[in-house]
Amino acid sequence: MTHPIPTLHTERLTLAPFRPEDAAALHRIYGVEGVLQYFPDPNPPPLERVRRSVALHLEHWGKYGYGNWGILPAGETALVGWAGLQYVPELEETEVGYLLDRPFWGKGYATEAARASIRFGFEQIGLEHLIALVHPENIASQRVLEKCGLVYEKTIPLWGIQLRLYRIQKPDPVKG
Hints:
By secondary structure, the chain is an alpha+beta fold. Helix content is 30%, strand content 29%. It has helices spanning 22-30, 47-64, 109-125, 139-147, and strands at residues 8-9, 13-16, 68-73, 81-88, 93-100, 129-134, 151-158, 161-169. Strands 1-2-3-4-5 form a five-stranded antiparallel sheet, with helices on both faces. A hairpin with a 4-residue loop joins strand 4 (81-88) and strand 5. Helix 1 crosses helix 2. The longest helix is centred in the N-terminal third of the chain and has 18 residues, at 47-64. The chain is globular, with a radius of gyration of 15 Å. It starts with 7 loop residues before the first strand and ends in a 7-residue tail after the last strand. The model has no long low-confidence stretch (mean pLDDT 94).
């Protein structure tokens, strides 16, 4: 049975389920210089591949009960990126991730979206821990992870590049 994908609201953002029409906005964002700089493939994908990716995000929700959301600044209707949780089969782990259009960098949106995603994973899904994978040169993303309470564990080879693996444990309800 498929459950509806929830919409999350933070102080300044709405994390909304992807819609097929979001592919065009994501395609534009992926084409902005620097947005995919630290991804395994920094080349912007063609629109058709982005459309398939949006469909796969929706399938992921159906399979795992969690996934990625589109990020909308509060009161806006234009997608500015994505954030959420993704199962990484190569590691048998769930990763928190995020990506923002360049004009929205440095405003705390990635941290806000990542915190909401982490909270959802622990409180709604019952995950015991989460990981994050980040390119060693992506200092801004490493800062986001650290602000969210993730701790660097090790550097691993994955998808043809070296990635720093961070981890966060579900808070102990007794300790808080």
